[in-house]
Amino acid sequence: MKINQEDNSYYVIFSLWLLVFAASSQVMIISPILPQIGTELDTSESLLGYLVTVYASMIGVFAIIMGPLSDKIGRRKILLIGSAGMTIALLLHSMANSFSSLLILRAFAGMAGGVLSGSAVSYVGDYFPYEKRGWANGWIMSGIAMGQILGIPLGTFLADLHGFKFPFILFGGIMGLTTILIFFKLPQPNVELQVSKITFKTTFKKYGDLLSQKDIKAVAVSYLLMFLSLSIFLIYLPAWLIKEFNISLSEIGWLFFAGGIVNAITGPNAGKLSDRIGRKNMIIFSCLGLATLMALTTFLITSFWVAFIIFPIAMLLIAMRISPFQALSSELVKSNNRGSLMSLLVAIGNVGAGIAGSIAGPLYEQFGYISNTIFGAFTIIVTAYIVWKYVPEPKFQHPKEETLEVAE
Questions:
Q1: Which pLDDT score, from 0 to 100, does residue 1 have?
Q2: How far apart are CA 52 and CA 36, in angstroms?
Q3: How many CA atoms lie within 13 A of 82 on its CB side?
């Protein structure tokens, strides 16, 4: 059958927005409640970063596995499998009574995250024409900002009152609602899917063929460095602020609230603007601005109130880059390779996050938070250079009609 894209696109955007909200909130909540997890589970600061590492590692592994499968069976089924798995994983966090048990449950959540990784962006690439993907990705990724505005303050408040498990239970319930919404409201776009049989050999050959392309290789390295720089900057920021200015967990929640408002405003507008002026310049500007801010963080934040200026600016610069980079990446291949590409990029990005989780703690403990900020600034500068030098800007095409065929 045929549906009018304008009529159905709002259901698609809201369903994916809610998925991004729940999935990102349960990841972001780790950073502000790390000190409380350490206290409740009697774990040293240097070990807490491994909660990020194990989650990122499992995302990377399962994203690699699920990418070709999504090209074979379609993005809708993958979104259902991933959202249902994430629901179960988050609800099971209620059983975490030791650091090792929490580590295992974060690994389980990472598996589900790997199934979901790249699927929402790939679905946007299947459903929307290139000229509208910046707009669509901007709105969907504003779910991350809303996670900061509502999810993180609420999560930190619940953690303050009832312990660190409650935020995960909350986001598990929201993900359950998302699963129902996807089942009833998301159609499967009628795009070309992979027809050949999926084997380990064909899967690795597919990824090898993708990475043999110069432009995709450049984007992959950029994802690795972006995730690395952001993670190493953000993981111990709350711990540093709490230690430096003797503030509460709830106050950290309000800081994320302020950053989330800026992110929510910037994300959709940045995506829409990139639809008009192109993606690369916005990405490069964001990287250079963020590198400067990272390097100066420990010098500029002389009181907790200054953090309410610096952190929202950082969120603005991050939001300027997310949806343009996703829209650009999704156009580098055809639809029957889009799921594999986006999953590959997310997997590689999470390798960067996993590396950051492993080294952020020792750096913070031995040299102080300034070492995290300088390391993050350097890697994001390298990212800007790679994007400028090696990442292409796809040409815009203007389709004649705004309808989309959807499989029965």
A1: 36
A2: 15
A3: 32
Angstrom distance (rounded) from CA 226 to CA 327? 16
- Tokens 């909350």 locate to 170
DSSP letter assigned to residue 236: T
The CATH number, out of the four listed (1.10.10.10, 1.20.1250.20, 3.40.190.10, 3.40.1190.20), of the domain defined by the range 2-188+202-394: 1.20.1250.20
379: helix, strand or coil: helix
Average pLDDT over residues 294-317: 92
Match 């994430």 to its residue by tokens: 86
Q: Which of 81-95, 245-259, 286-300, 393-407 has the lowest mean pLDDT?
A: 393-407
222 Cβ contact partners less than 8 Å away, ≥ 6 residues apart: 325, 383, 386, 387, 391
The DSSP line for 250-286 is HHHHHHHHHHHHHHHHHHHHHHHHHHHH-SHHHHHHH
Measured between alpha carbons, how far apart are the two ends of the chain, in Å? 6
Domain ranges in the chain are 2-188+202-394
Q: How far is CA 53 from the centre of its chain?
A: 15
State how far the Cα of 155 lies from the Cα of 110, in Å rounded to an integer.
19
Q: What's the residue count for the chain?
A: 408
Q: Which of 175, 140, 139, 170 lies closest to 152, judged by CA? A: 170
Amino acid of residue 75: R
Share of the chain above pLDDT 90, in %: 28
The share of the chain scoring above pLDDT 70, in percent, equals: 92
Question: How would residue 396 be classed by pLDDT, with cut points 50, 70 and 90?
Answer: low
pLDDT above 80: residue 315: yes
Threshold 0.90, pTM exceeds: no
Residue with tokens 């989330």: 260
Q: Which two tokens stand for residue 120?
A: 């929402």
Nearest partner of 230 among 121, 161, 314, 143, judged by Cα: 314
Of the candidates 68, 103, 100, 99, the residue with the CA atom closest to the CA atom of residue 89: 103
Region of residue 128 (left: phi > 0; alpha: psi -120 to 50; beta: else): beta
